[in-house]
Amino acid sequence: MKSSKYLRLSIISSILIIIFQAFQLNIINIVTPFLMPIIWRVIFGLYIVVTIITVYHLLKHKDWQPIFIQIVTILLIFYFPFTETAVQINFKMNKSAREEVVRMVEDGTLEPNVSHNSDLISLPKKYARLSKGGGDILIKGEGNRYFILFFAFRGVVDNSSGFVYSFHDKKPTQNDFGSHFGYIDKLSENWYFVVLN
Which UniProt keywords apply (predicted)? Predict the structure, then answer.
């Protein structure tokens, strides 16, 4: 292989892994949690193979460009907050639409409407994109401790994540959702991002 082919191979594998990291939350909602490990293995496997090839190329031809790209990519993977950035972008792009849904829940326009679960509201088609895994939102709490969960990822049995609106800006607790929180981050007034285990 010529030097430019190694460089192209390095660039392609790096772009694939960066795109995968940047859009992981979207990809998992498209391909399901069952296929995600396979895709993860293929992409990271390709990256590892290309890294080995570029190390060989470095030793044989003293060409640093391909391995440099691989090193910069792995540093980005470990140190750039891809998931946090994706969460912030999703939150900012959809905040006003989610707040429209919150107002509809507050004024009674939207009420629980899923027969098998009295805490779920199936959103109208216009808003279904705001909550992944079926377009449902979860309403929990009573009185002044009331929460709405818009799913960012909806696990098969558990392990969900999403954006929680807290009516009185109180941080949700384990008791509010009946599940252990793996992570809670306040995004803005009344809004939190949570990972439920």
Answer: Membrane, Transmembrane, Transmembrane helix
* CB-based contact 189:169 (threshold 8 Å): yes
Same domain, 32 and 47: yes
What does the block give as tokens for 183? 């992570």
Q: How many domains does the chain have?
A: 2
CA distance 151 to 69: 35
Three-state SS for 42? helix
Within this chain, do residues 20 and 55 fall inside the same structural domain, yes or no? yes
Please give the chain's pLDDT, 197 residues, in tens.
466 899 999 999 999 999 999 998 889 878 877 888 999 999 999 999 999 999 998 899 888 999 999 999 999 999 999 989 999 999 999 999 999 999 999 888 888 888 888 889 999 999 999 998 889 999 987 766 689 999 998 876 567 889 999 988 888 877 777 777 788 899 999 999 998 87
Closest Cα partner for 196 from 157, 165, 167? 157
Q: What's the domain range around 186?
A: 85-196
| Of 76, 75, 57, 80, nearest in space to 10 by CA | 57
Rg (CA), the chain: 21
